[in-house]
Amino acid sequence: MGAPDAPHRTQRGGTAVTDADQSRDRIREDAVETALGKLDLDTKTRLLAGQDMWSLPALPGIGLGSLVMSDGPIGVRGVRWSADDPSVALPSPSALAASWDPGLARRAGRLLAQEARRKGVHVVLAPTVNLHRTPLGGRHFECYSEDPCLTGAIGAGYVNGVQDGGVGTTVKHFVANDAETERFTVDCVIAPRPLRELYLAPFEAIVAGARPWGVMTSYNRVNGTSMTENQYLVNEVLRGEWGFDGYNVSDWMAARSTTADILGGLDVAMPGPQTVYGPALAAAVRAGEVPEAAVDGAVRNVLRLAARAGLLDGAPAAVSEPPAELDGQALARELAVRGFVLVRNAGGALPFDPAAPRSVALSGAAARDARVLGGGSATVFPERVVSPLDGLTAALPEGALSYSVGADPSEEPVPADKGFELRAVCRDASGTVLGEGGLPSGQVQWIGDDLPEGATYETMASIEVTGTFVPRESGEHTFGTRGLGAFTLAVGGRTRWEGVQEMGGEADPFEAFFGAPRERARLFLTEGEPVEVSLTYQVPDMSALPLKAIMFSLLHLGPRLDPDELIAQAARAAREADTAVVVVATTDRVESEGYDRRDLTLPGRQDDLVRAVAAANPNTVVVVNAGSPVEMPWREDVAAILLTWFPGQEGGAALADVLLGHAEPGGRLPTTWPAALADAPVTEVIPTDGRLEYEEGLFIGYRAYEKHGVTPAYPFGHGLGYTDWAYESLEVTADTARVRLTNTGTRPGREVVQIYLAPVADAVPRPASWLAAFAGVAAGPGESVEVRIPLPARAFEIWDETAHGWRRIGGTYEVRASHSHADTRLSATLDL
Ligand code: BGC
To answer: Distance from the CA of 214 to the center of ligand 1, in angstroms?
Structure first.
C-alpha cells in the first residue's frame, strides 16, 4: 500500500493548541502587560514607527530588542539589498502552489526561518496570498493560485513552517492587491460575496490554520476605504470575527493618515524614520483626536510579536528549540522538481530513454541566462544559479549537448552583468573619496543606512559606478541608465552621454526602481577586449524625504544578431540532434512588481524559434520559464511542454533531474492557462477614474471558464507525471471523501487527488463546481493507496449578504474525485 500525505484541512484545526501553549501564552501576555505599563506615550508611539527601512527601535529600559523585518517570500534578503549578503532562492510562490503540498510549503517555511535567524531577521514579510484574478497581474508569480482553498492551504503550510522556526510572518497584502496598476491609490470595488468567498478566504484560512504573528495591509482601497484605515475589514473582520492576535504592519509607505490609520487598526507604519506615527501620533493623542487606548492596543500587538520572537525579557519565546537544520540547496532543487508541471507529453517524449544514447540540442537565451526569480521586493541574491545549460551540461555525457541562443527576448538594456567587473565609489563635493563597495551588477540599490562604509547622505555628492567590461561578442553594444536624476556615462574613457532623467507619468515612489530603462549610447566593441566603463550619478538633496535611498542602474544590451540567422542556427542544431529542448521565457520588463502585463505573448521571436525547432525535430521539448501564463500557439506541434515557473537557484539541476527521469515532475496547475488572453475571465487591470470594479463577482479562474463554456489551453489542476493512476473507488459522507487508487504504471509516482463539489439543481447562484479539498498520495508501480480527505464545512457554505453570515446550502451535491478540474475520474452523490 502506498502512502497518503497528511490530509489537509482548510478550516480550523491546522495547529493544535496544547495546554503548555496556553500556559506560555498567559505568561507572555503578563509580560506584555507589564512592559506596556512602563511606557510613556512618546515611547509607545515611537515603537509603532519604523526606525529605518526594516526595523523597530529597541527599548532597553523594558528589555525589548529591535524587531527586524525582511522580504520574503522565496528567500530572506536581510537588511542589505545586495549580493554581498547572499540568500537561498527557492522557486517562485506559483511553483510552490503547483506542488499542491502544504507539507512541502511547511518545509520551505522552515528553511526560510533558518535563513532569517542566520541574518538576524525576526519577521519574514510573506507569504503573498492575493489571488490570480487575472494573468495580467504583475505579481502573479508571487501569489499562489486562482483558487482560495489551494492558496489558503499552501499559505498556512508556509506560515506554520516559518513560525515553527521561531520567526514571524506577515500574510500579505490584506486585501485585494491583485494587480499593480495605480496600486497606491486604486479603489477595488468588490461585492460582499466574492470578497468573503474569494479574496478574504485565504487570509481567513491562514488565521485559523496557522495563527500568523502578522498581517501586512495593502496600498489599495477596498470599497472606498484605504486598507491601512479599514476599520471594518481589520478591526471587525480580521481581529473581531477571526480572532487574529498578531500585529498589522503597513505595506511600505502605505500609511498616510495618523488618525485614520491608528483607528483603522494599523499597528506599525513602515518604513521609517519619518512616518505618520511617532511624534505625530503622540500629538494626535494629546489633541484628543485619538484615544490612548488605541495606541496601547497597537503597542500590545507589537510587544506580543516581540515576545513570540524572543525579544522581550521575561517572556517565553514561541519556539525555544528551532527544528533541525535543512540543506537549502537540496531543498531548493526538490521544491523546483515538485513544482514543475508537465502539461503535454505526446507519445511519452519525456523522460528521455536512459537506454538510448542521445544528443540534445538546447536553445533559448534563458537556457543560458536563466530567470530564476521575479522582480521587485521578492528579489534575493543567491550564492549560485544553475541555469538549464549548466544543469544539462553536468547531467549529460560529454559532447551530447549543443547550445544556441535561438532567440533573445531582452530587447531592452538590463543591469550590466555578464562580463562586467564593477564597484561603486562615493565622493563628496570636492571629489574626495568617502567610501566604496563592490557591485555584483550595474544596479545600485541602497536603502536607509545601507551605504558603503564612510559615506553618508549628507556628505555624498556623487556616486560613480566604474570598472571594466569584457564583451562576450563583437558588435554594437548598447549602454543605458535607469533611475531619476543627473548622470554622466563614459565608455572607453570618453563621455558618451550626459543628462537629467525626470520623473515619468506614473507618480509611483518606486519609479527609480521599476521605471523604464533608457538607452544612452551605442558603440562597436570587440569580443574579449576590455573597455573602461563609468556612470556617475549626482546625489540629490534628500533631507526632506521620508525615506532615504539611492537607486539607479548602469544598463547594457549585447549586440543584436540577425534574428532570422539565430533561429536558423538553432533549427540546424535541432535537426542534427535526437532531441531538441527550447527554453522560452518572459523578461523582467514583462513580469515584475510595480506594473502589470499588457499581453501574454512571449517577448521577441521566441514563438518563431519554437516553430522552427519543432519543424526541424519532432522530438521537441519546450521548457517555459515564466511565473505566470503565456500564450503557446504552437502547443499542439511540439512533443512535450514543461512549465518550470521561476524555478529558484537550483532550477537547471532540477530540470536535468526531470528530463532525464531521475525525478517525476510533481506539479499540477494552480491556475488555468488560457489559450489566448481574450479567453481569460478578467483582462482589465487599468482602473477607471481610480476604481477597479470586480464585475465578474465569483467568477474568476476555472469558475469562469466553466460558466462561459470556454476551453482553456490547460485546465486548473492539470499536470502529468511519469506514471498512470486508476481511480477505483470513492465513498463520501458530509465530512469525508475516501478515495482508493492504484499506480498502474511502471514507475513510482505521486498523484494529487482533487475533490470538487458540483451542486445538482442549485437553489442559489453559485459556480457550477469548486475545489473543496485535496490530498497527495504516493505509490510504487502496481501499488494501491487509500486516502481519507476531510471535507471542510465551509465548502458547502456561501456568504449570505442579507444575514451577514455564512449559510450552509443543503441539497444534492455531486462529489468528484478528479485528476484536474476537467478530468473527473469518479463521482458520488451526497444529499445534505
Ligand atoms: C511590497 C511589499 C514588500 C515591501 C517591502 C512593498 O513595495 O509591496 O510586498 O514587503 O515593499 O519591501
So the answer is: 14
